[in-house]
Write a structure and sequence with these properties.
Elements (H helix, E strand, L loop, with lengths): L1 E3 L2 E3 L13 H15 L6 E4 L3 H13 L4 E4 L1
Parallel strand pairs: 3-4
Antiparallel strand pairs: 1-2
Length: about 70
Protein backbone atom coordinates (compact mmCIF):
# COMPACT_ATOMS: atom_id res chain seq x y z
CA UNK A 1 0.00 0.00 0.00
CA UNK A 2 1.32 3.42 -0.88
CA UNK A 3 -0.14 6.80 -0.07
CA UNK A 4 0.48 10.01 -1.98
CA UNK A 5 -1.24 13.37 -2.37
CA UNK A 6 -3.98 11.69 -4.43
CA UNK A 7 -4.71 9.20 -1.65
CA UNK A 8 -3.94 5.56 -0.93
CA UNK A 9 -3.21 3.09 -3.71
CA UNK A 10 -2.46 -0.61 -3.85
CA UNK A 11 1.15 -1.10 -4.92
CA UNK A 12 1.60 -4.89 -5.09
CA UNK A 13 1.22 -8.17 -3.30
CA UNK A 14 3.39 -11.26 -3.14
CA UNK A 15 2.91 -14.96 -2.57
CA UNK A 16 5.34 -16.00 0.16
CA UNK A 17 3.89 -19.48 0.66
CA UNK A 18 6.65 -21.89 1.63
CA UNK A 19 9.30 -19.20 2.08
CA UNK A 20 11.20 -18.78 5.33
CA UNK A 21 10.09 -15.36 6.51
CA UNK A 22 13.20 -14.17 8.33
CA UNK A 23 14.48 -10.61 8.66
CA UNK A 24 16.47 -10.80 5.42
CA UNK A 25 13.45 -12.04 3.46
CA UNK A 26 11.23 -9.29 4.84
CA UNK A 27 13.87 -6.59 4.32
CA UNK A 28 14.45 -7.73 0.72
CA UNK A 29 10.77 -7.30 -0.14
CA UNK A 30 10.58 -3.96 1.66
CA UNK A 31 13.70 -2.84 -0.23
CA UNK A 32 12.18 -3.94 -3.56
CA UNK A 33 9.03 -1.89 -2.89
CA UNK A 34 11.12 1.12 -1.79
CA UNK A 35 13.22 0.94 -4.94
CA UNK A 36 10.08 0.62 -7.09
CA UNK A 37 8.75 3.98 -5.94
CA UNK A 38 12.15 5.54 -5.27
CA UNK A 39 13.80 5.95 -1.85
CA UNK A 40 13.32 9.73 -1.97
CA UNK A 41 9.57 9.17 -2.19
CA UNK A 42 9.37 7.00 0.95
CA UNK A 43 9.12 8.56 4.39
CA UNK A 44 8.00 5.63 6.54
CA UNK A 45 7.37 1.91 6.53
CA UNK A 46 4.73 0.45 8.82
CA UNK A 47 4.85 -3.14 10.07
CA UNK A 48 3.41 -5.14 12.90
CA UNK A 49 5.34 -5.69 16.11
CA UNK A 50 6.66 -9.18 15.26
CA UNK A 51 10.34 -9.73 16.06
CA UNK A 52 11.18 -10.44 12.41
CA UNK A 53 9.46 -7.21 11.29
CA UNK A 54 11.35 -5.19 13.90
CA UNK A 55 14.64 -6.64 12.68
CA UNK A 56 13.76 -6.08 9.00
CA UNK A 57 12.74 -2.49 9.78
CA UNK A 58 16.09 -1.87 11.45
CA UNK A 59 17.90 -3.19 8.36
CA UNK A 60 15.88 -0.82 6.17
CA UNK A 61 16.57 2.13 8.50
CA UNK A 62 20.31 1.37 8.34
CA UNK A 63 20.28 1.19 4.55
CA UNK A 64 17.96 4.19 4.09
CA UNK A 65 18.56 6.65 6.97
CA UNK A 66 15.81 8.98 5.72
CA UNK A 67 13.14 6.25 6.07
CA UNK A 68 11.61 5.65 9.47
CA UNK A 69 10.04 2.43 10.70
CA UNK A 70 6.82 2.36 12.67
CA UNK A 71 5.65 -0.69 14.56
CA UNK A 72 1.99 -1.15 15.32
Amino acid sequence: MAINESGPMFLKSMDAYGDLKDKDFMARYMRDAIMEVGPNNVVQIITDNAVVCKAAGMLIELEFPSIFGLLV
